[in-house]
C-alpha cells in the first residue's frame, strides 16, 4: 500500500531561487480573479454558498480529469498528511466562509476593504513564515496597492466603520488572515504537487453545500448565458486560478505576488465598467495608477534585477 507523502512543516526558505515563470503563473491567477465579479454578476442571483459549491465542484472535476489524463490514480493524488489537508481546505473554504459572513454582517465596501489586507499580509508574513528577505520596495509596493484599493473604495461612497458591525469586520479580517496564511504556508509544503488542489476544491464544495442547505434557499442560474458564466467561474477564477496560485506561491516570489494581487479588484472594476455594470470614476483611474505603480515597484528584482548592494 502506498504511504502518504511525508511533508516537513518547519521549512523556511525554498532551496531554489524564486522563479519568474512561476510568479507569472501567479499573475495569471490574479487576472482570472479579476473576472470573478463580472462572471458572478452574469450568473444571476445564485446564493453565495450554492455558487461556491457549484463552481468548486467544477474546479475539482477539472483537476481530477487532468490527473486521470496523465495516467495517475486518483487515490495517489489524495494521500496527503492531515496538515496538508488542513492547510488546503482551511485556506479555500475558510477564506470564503469568513468572507461571506463578513458581507452578511458588515457593509460590503468596508468589508471588502478590510478583506483586501490579505496581499499586504502576504508580504509582511513572507519574512517570518517563508524565510524571505523584505526590502523597502516590497513593502512600498504593497502599501501603494493598499492605498489604491482604499481610493477605489472611497470612490464608491463614503466609508463608515460603525461599531455595530464589528463582528463583520472581524470576519473580513479573518478571511484576509486565512488566505494570507494559506498562501505563505503553502511554501512550506512545496513537495506537494498542485494537483492536490483538486481534492481541496472537492472538500470545499462539499462543505459549501452543507452551509448552503443550512443557511440558504436554492436559486438556479436563470438561463443558458448564466449557466455559461457559472461554468466559466468553475474553470477559471475558482478552478485554474487556484492551481496557478499554488504553483506560484511555492515556486515564485511571494513578496511580489502580494503586491500584484492588488491588480485583481482594479481589473474587476474595469471589467464591470467595460460591460456597463458600473460608471467611470476618477477614483478608478487613480487606483489603477497606484496599484500598477506598486506592482512595478514590488517587482523591481524581477524586472530590473536586484540592484541592492550586497551586505
What key attributes describe this structure?
311 residues, 0% strand, mainly alpha, single chain, disordered N terminus
| Percent strand | under 5%
Q: Nearest-angstrom radius of gyration? A: 19 Å
Q: Provide the structure class.
A: mainly alpha
End-to-end distance: 50 Å
- The overall strand count is 0
* Unreliable segments of 5+ consecutive residues: 1-6, 11-15
Number of domains: 1
Biggest sheet statistics: none
Number of helices: 14
Mean pLDDT: 85
Question: What coarse outline follows from CA principal-axis ratios?
Answer: globular
Helix content: 55-70%
Order of helices and strands: HHHHHHHHHHHHHH
Question: Mind explaining what this structure looks like?
Answer:
With 311 residues, the protein is an all-alpha fold. The protein has one domain. The chain is 70% helix and 0% strand. It has 14 helices and no strands. It has helices at residues 20-34, 36-42, 48-69, 82-105, 108-115, 118-130, 136-155, 166-185, 197-215, 224-251, 254-260, 263-274, 282-298, 300-304.
Secondary structure layout plus pairing:
Elements: H1 20-34, H2 36-42, H3 48-69, H4 82-105, H5 108-115, H6 118-130, H7 136-155, H8 166-185, H9 197-215, H10 224-251, H11 254-260, H12 263-274, H13 282-298, H14 300-304
Helix pairs in contact: 1-10, 1-11, 1-12, 2-10, 3-9, 3-10, 4-5, 4-8, 4-9, 5-7, 5-8, 6-7, 6-8, 6-11, 7-11, 7-13, 11-13, 12-13
Summarize the structure.
This protein has 311 residues and is an all-alpha fold. The protein contains 14 helices and no strands. It is globular and about 50 Å long.
